[in-house]
Design brief:
26% of the residues lie in helices and 27% in strands. By secondary structure, it is of the alpha/beta class. The strands form 4 sheets. Strands 1, 2, 9, 10, 11, 12, 13 and 19 form an 8-stranded mixed beta sheet that branches. A 7-stranded mixed beta sheet has the order 7-6-15-16-17-14-18. Strands 3-4 form a two-stranded antiparallel sheet.
Length: 368
Amino acid sequence: MNTDVAIVGGGLAGLNAARLLQAAGIDFLLFEARATLGGRIQTVNERGQPDADGFDLGPSWFWPRMQPAIANLVAELELPTFPQNNDGDVVFERMSRESPKHYPGLAQEPEAIRLVGGSAALVRAIAESLAEGRLRCGAEVTGMRLTEDGVVLFVRLADGQEERVHALHAIAAVPPRILNATVRFEPALDSGTEQLWKQTPTWMAPHAKFFAVYDRPFWREAGFSGTAQGMVGPLAEIHDATTSSGEAALFGFLGMGAEQRKTMGEKALTEGCIQQFARLFGKQAAHPRATLFKDWAADPLTATPADWFSAGHPRAPEGGWVAGRWKERLTLAGSEVSPIEAGYLAGAVEASAAAVAHLIQKFARNKG
């Protein structure tokens, strides 16, 4: 099987790269190891199943005033949006022996915006615009080999079979650390590139999110915004996760490391989170209709053991992400490699657009 460009990764970055290549008339194939598209964008219902009106286990916000690239993409795709709820008091829990404190909420600037239907609305809209047969889910790229005229990709399919795909160029739209851990390169990467990838933290990878779903957003009725911060735990940062259609929920980021979360287990963490919601927002919070828990550090397609102990936003190196013999045939395009929005949804849009612009120029020079 041959193609001009092979894209590794079917998250927002990979899909946006595919969209831009298609617009430029460049042939491509996209390979996603997961059974579904989206990568760290996962929007699910209260049963944990993918849904067109659910809760975002991964990224859920963007800031259009600060992030014009994703704002323009959302506008181009004509996707409806709504603001993150901030109306009402903010709660702060400093110590276990003190009652939580309430403070008047302030207007958020810049304003955080959410997509109607969840962040997966972006994934669905782009995927539906792409030519049939170009997207391959359940197809894990396990190796790449340089040839005289391109790259051979070794792809393991869901049934265990392997196929080989020849491309003139490869775009890796996955975190550098995951790329290094899951793909075998022939010839091997130069030591500088490999070390750079290993040292680049993967956004979301060390984190975990917990959701409690309720029949109605009772905290709003009581004058709370749903925003809270806690130093008691287990949640460190809490927000209103109610959907645009009114499915009521609170969510929070766990304020403990991956190793401690694993030791405690999901059952104990769930009990602790519900108790915390009840302390902060009242007795009604003690009885959610459903709960959701996503530990990204336990996701092998998101995190490596190194991500258990590192966090923060990646930083773009001055010399580029690929050096040595692979430089002319491989381009990185995941959110982590964005020079200005690393780790965010906007970073995925920025990095993938830059990667495709580079390839369009390269192909034009070769034809000339």
